Automatic annotation (TrEMBL):
Coiled coil: none annotated. One of its GO terms (molecular function) is structural constituent of ribosome. Part of the 50S ribosomal subunit. Pfam families: Ribosomal_L30 (PF00327). Keywords: Ribonucleoprotein, Ribosomal protein. The keyword tRNA-binding does not apply. Gene3D superfamilies: Ribosomal protein L30, ferredoxin-like fold domain. HAMAP family: Ribosomal_uL30_B (MF_01371_B). This is Large ribosomal subunit protein uL30. GO terms for biological process: translation. GO terms for cellular component: cytosolic large ribosomal subunit.
Length: 65
């Protein structure tokens, strides 16, 4: 887990699995990351809060740094 990468401390997150069958709290975490549809990509500031959300739903998202 890099603190600062070449893009100025951001991390790209892609939703790679559908939300059907996942826990309601995990669906809320995905929405908090700004991901709505399959293959949505968001570039977010790399912070402990964002990393915590990513770790919670690690089986639904892919980190593209």
């Amino acid at each position: 887990m890099a603190k600062n990468n070449a893009t100025g401390g951001t991390v790209k997150v892609r939703l790679v699995r559908g939300l059907a069958g996942s826990q309601a709290r995990h669906r809320l975490s995905v929405r908090a990351l700004g991901l709505n549809k399959l293959n949505d990509v968001r570039e977010l500031k790399d912070s402990p809060q964002v990393r915590g959300l990513i770790n919670k739903v690690h089986y639904l998202v892919r980190v593209e740094e």
